[in-house]
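re: that chain from earlier
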Amino acid sequence: NADENTDEKCPFMANEDTINQLRQVKNIIIDQMADPPSLEELSKTVGLNIKKLKQGFKEVYGAPVFTFLLNYKLEFSKKLLIENHLNVNEIGNKIGYSNSSHFIAAFKRKFGITPKQFTKQINA
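^ sequence. v structure.
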């Protein structure tokens, strides 16, 4: 039976409610990026079980919740560096790094250069 095979390959087909719940999750973690809630808290807040939340989020946004958030935070930090109103410590704090060296290391892993090098490049 062809229909059954399709279902098996794709166990998670998000309906509109689920999509809205996942969008809510995305908005919450972005709003609270400096101190995001756990998956358990997110699942309770939006009313989606953890397994569905994890599977659905990855399917809709192309990455697990906290991988998505990390990428978002680092892209956001780039924007803040370009605007040039905050120093590296302030940006690190704003996106949830209590220690600027952790922020610098994460930035370098993602973009291959430090925030300082990035700032030099854009101001060159």
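The chain has eight helices and no strands.
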